[in-house]
Amino acid sequence: MTTLDEANTSEGRFAEIMSVLAASRLPDPYPRYREIRQLGAFLPGDLAGSTVTLVTTLAGATAVLAHPAIGHGYRDGVSYRGDAEDGLGSLLRADPPDHARLRRLVGKAFTPAVIADLVPELTALLDELLDTAIDRGEVDAVEALARPLPLRMMCRLLGVPAEDEQEFGGWADALARGLDPPALMTPAEKTARQRATVAFDEYFRALIARRRGAPREDLLSRLVAIHDDGDVLSERELLELCTLLLVAGYETTVNLISGGILALLGNPDQLAALRADPALVGPAVEEMLRYDPPVQFIARTVLADAEIGGHAFTGGDGVLMIIGAANRDPEAFDQPDRFLAGRYAGAGRTPRHLGFGAGIHYCLGAPLARIEAELALRGLLRRTRSFTLAEQAVAYRDQIVIRGVRTLPLRLFA
Ligand code: HEM
Question: Which of 219, 220, 337, 345 could link 283 by a cystine bridge, Cβ 3.0 to 4.6 Å?
Fold first, then answer.
C-alpha cells in the first residue's frame, strides 16, 4: 500500500492514478480502491500532462456530477482537454444547453412503450438460449447467455436486421474501448476502433436513409422522424447517437449479467435467498450495479474554478470519479464489501449507488438494462436447480472504463 507521503509527490500521484486505472481489470480491484479512498475523498494528480483529481467517495462523486461548473467542454468533436474524435460527442459529452436539447429529442423517441415492445422477443430468445445451455450442461455464460440478449436488444432497438447481427457484434467489441482515455490505448487498439467507427458509420448512414423512406417500429425510425417545435436531429447527430447507444448500452449490459452471475456464485447464501424469494431479483440487480459496477470510472472536465465538497477545483483540470470506490464507501453503505441481495428491498433504505451515474447524464437506458438483467436472472433461477463455476480462475477483459469478465465457464443443473 502507498503511504500518504509517497502518494503526495508528483510521481507518486501519477503512479496512484495509473494503478487505480489498471485495477479495474483485476478479478478484485476493491482492496486497491479501498486504499485509495483511505487517502482522501479528492486526490489531485498528474495524467498525460494535466491535473486530474480522483474522487473516491459517494458524497464527493455525487456532488461533482451535479455541479454546474463540471462538464465536458466538448465542442465540434474535440474536448478542450484534447480528446480525439471518437464519435461519442453527442449527448454523453454535451454540456447544457446542448445536452438538454439532445436529451429531450432522444427522450421523445426512447419511451417506455419502445422498451415494453422488446420484452416478448427477449423473453423468447432467453428461453431458447437456456434450452441450448441446459442441453449442453457446461457453457461459457458470456457467449451463451450474457452477450446474445443485449446484442439482440441493441439490434432491435436500432433496427439492424437479424442477418447483420454477428457483424454488428464485432464492431461493438471494437467500439467498447471507445470510453477509455485515448492516452492509455495502444496504436493497434486505436486503429481497430477507428476501423469499426468507419464501418459502423457507413452501415448506419445507409440504414438511416432506408428508415427515412420506409419507417418501421424501431427506435431508429422514431429518432429519424422526431420533430420538436421545428427542431430535428441532424444526420451527424443521428450517427453519433447510434454509436453512443451501442457503446453505452451493449457491453455494459453484457457485463452486468455476467458480473451478476459471478456475484451470486461468490455468495451462495445470497443465491439461496434469491431462489427462496424471487421478488428479490429486482433489488439484487440494483445491488449488482453497486457491488461490481460495469462502468468503473466517469470522467469530466472542470469548466470554471469551483469549490465542491470542500475541495478547490481549477478550470481546465480533469476529474475522474472512481465508481467502484464510491459504491463501496463505508460512510454511505453498511457492510460495503458484502453482496446483499436484499439491500435495496423496501423503498428508501439505502442511498443510491453510482452504477448508472448521476446528474444530467444519468443513464438513459437504465430501465432497459434493469429489465434485461432481471429477465436473464429470473430465467436462470427458474430453469436451473443449481449452477456452479466450471473453472476457478476467471479473467477480465482488457478494458479500463467498462469492466467485465472475458469468459464465465458455467455448469448448469436443471
Ligand atoms: C448495465 C448496463 C448499463 C450501465 C452500467 C450504464 C451506465 C451508464 C453510466 C454510468 C452513464 C453515465 C455516464 C456519464 O455520466 O458520463 C450512462 C449514460 C448513458 N447510458 Fe447507460 N448504462 C447501461 C445501459 C445502457 C443502455 C441499455 C442504454 C441504451 C440502450 C444506455 C444508454 C446511455 C446513454 C445514451 C447515456 C448518456 C446519457 C446522457 O449523457 O444524458 N445505457 N450509462
Answer: 345
Tell me the per-residue pLDDT of 230-251, one tens digit each, with 9 for 90 and over.
888 888 888 888 888 888 899 9
Any bridge partners for residue 79, and if so which? 74
Backbone angles phi, psi at 70, to 5 degrees: -110, 130
Q: How, if at all, do strands 42-47 and 50-55 pair?
A: antiparallel
Picking from 313, 360, 400, 302, the residue whose alpha carbon sits closest to that of residue 80 is 302
Q: Give me the domains of the chain, ranges plus CATH numbers.
A: 4-413 (1.10.630.10)
Atom of ligand 1 nearest to the CA of 250: 27
Ligand 1 mean position to 370 CA, how many Å?
Answer: 12
C-alpha to C-alpha distance for 201 and 142, rounded to whole angstroms: 27
Residue ranges of E strands in 123-171: 138-140
- CA nearest neighbour of 58 among 393, 360, 365, 334: 334
C-alpha to C-alpha distances, 158 to 107, 203, 223, 242, 369, nearest whole angstrom: 15, 12, 10, 7, 15
Q: CA torsion, points 218, 223, 226, 232, in degrees to nearest 10? A: -160
Q: Which of 141, 167, 168 is nearest to 154 (CA)?
A: 168
pLDDT in tens, 42-83: 999 887 778 999 999 999 999 999 999 999 987 544 443 344
Please name every residue paired with 51 in a beta bridge, in sequence order, or none if there are none: 46
Cell numbers standing for residue 250 = 451493449
Q: Whose CA is nearest to atom 17 of ligand 1?
A: 363
Q: What is the pLDDT of residue 86?
A: 53
Whole-number Å distance between alpha carbons of 119 and 257: 16
Identity at 13, one-letter amino acid code: R
Whole-number Å distance between alpha carbons of 230 and 115: 26
Could you say which residues of the chain have pLDDT below 70? 1-12, 75-89, 176-179, 181-184, 347
Residue for cell digits 479495474?
24
Nearest to 361 by CA among 98, 175, 44, 156: 98
**Residue of 70, 51, 47, 73 lying closest to 60 (CA atoms):** 70
Q: Is 103's C-beta closer than 6 angstroms to any atom of ligand 1?
A: yes
Look at residues 83, 42, 298 and name the one whose alpha carbon lies nearest to residue 184. 83
Mutate to test the pocket of ligand 1, among 251, 363, 400, 403 (most ligand atoms within 8 A of CB): 363
Instruction: Cell numbers for 210, please give them.
Output: 432506408
Please give the pLDDT value at position 9: 61
Task: Return d(Cα 356, Cα 295) in angstroms, integer.
Answer: 8
